[in-house]
Fold tRNA (Uracil-5-)-methyltransferase.
Amino acid sequence: MDNKEPQVEPEDSKKNDKKKKLLLLLLLLLLLLGGIYIGLNWNNWFGDRPTVNIDANAQNQRNKKKQKSSATEIPGFETMTMKANATEQSVNLYNPKGNKVYFRLSIYLPNGKKIWQSEMIKPGKAIYKLKLNRTLAAGTYENCTLRYDCYAMSKQLVQLNGSQMNFTFKVVE
């Protein structure tokens, strides 16, 4: 019979095994934490966020009025004066500073034809110059419509209630 003595591992080998197990455990922990971090941030990095097209013509509002209620304030007027036979126009269309929504404004003629639409206008911003889709002949255009589309200021661009106001275009030479 063979007389084999049991082999005893050297002390260094046991220490190396412990180090390997510890490194493996740390690596697994690091991978787990990395996976959690990626999972929590995935939608922020790659989620379906709508692109909000903020109107580049919107400027800081000049006549800043303090809003007294928590409701969305929709400015209104009875007449708007524009230049005849010109697409470039001077106006004062604004989203009051106290609002908590984006505005998208549209102007319609009495026949329902849209002649202008803004991009999103942030609260406290105003449109002072705009370009119509077409020129208008001199005259008075009654029952034109200014349409306010309101959108939530959140990651999801959700359309809220809006408003329509009738006004009179006075187009002068």
Remarks:
- Residues 49 and 164 are 28 Å apart (CA to CA).
- The chain has two domains: 14-47, 58-63+74-172.
